[in-house]
Amino acid sequence: MDPAQTSLYQPLIFLGMLLLFMYVFIIRPQNKRNKEINQMLDNMQVGSEVIAASGILGKVKGIKGQYVSIEVSNSVVLKLQKSAIANILPNGTIDSIK
Fold first, then answer.
1. Would you state the pLDDT for residue 3?
2. Do residues 79 and 66 touch, judged by C-beta distance below 8 A?
3. DSSP 20-33
4. What is the pTM of this model?
5. Which of 67, 44, 47, 45 is nearest to 58 (CA)?
6. Is 27 left (phi over 0), alpha (psi -120 to 50) or beta?
7. Which residues pair with 51 in a beta bridge?
8. What are the mean pLDDT values of the chain's consecutive 10-residue runs (98 residues total)?
9. pLDDT of residue 81
10. Beta carbons within 8 Å of 46's beta carbon, 6+ residues apart
11. DSSP 8-class letter at 7
């Protein structure tokens, strides 16, 4: 083999290292985050205090399938998709803000 020629394995090794890098630093953390979000939404109960992705705070009044009813004020209830819930807050958070 002529020393000026490049090996056919070098591009394959580079591609393999690139795929490994993408898996370790992009795909795996995203899958882990999705698993945490799904677990959080499954643990949501009636009476939990939540914050929506839009910044709306409220207490969960009902859960029906993929939808959640949250009370944001006296007799003001909003229906949101579960995926719109950003986080579950510790109990008493809403009262401490008022």
1. 59
2. no
3. HHHIIIIIHHHHHH
4. 0.72
5. 47
6. alpha
7. 57, 87
8. 69 93 95 95 94 95 96 94 95 88
9. 96
10. 60, 61, 62, 63
11. P
- According to DSSP, the residues that pair with 71 across neighbouring strands are 59, 77
Q: What are phi and psi of 37, to 5 degrees?
A: -65, -45
- Measured distance CA(85)–CA(5) in Å, rounded: 57
> Assign residue 43 a region: left if phi > 0, alpha if psi is -120 to 50, beta otherwise?
alpha
What is the pLDDT, as a whole number, of residue 63? 96
Residue entry with tokens 């394959």: 12
Written as six digits, the tokens of 85 are: 């819930």
Residue labelled with tokens 């992705």: 53
Buried residues in 39-77 as b, exposed as e (16+ CB within 10 A) = eebeeeeeebbbbbeeeeebbbeebeeeebbbeeeeeee
CB count within 10 Å of CB 80 equals 19
Q: Which pLDDT score, from 0 to 100, does residue 5 have?
A: 64
Residue 89: its H or E element: strand 85-89
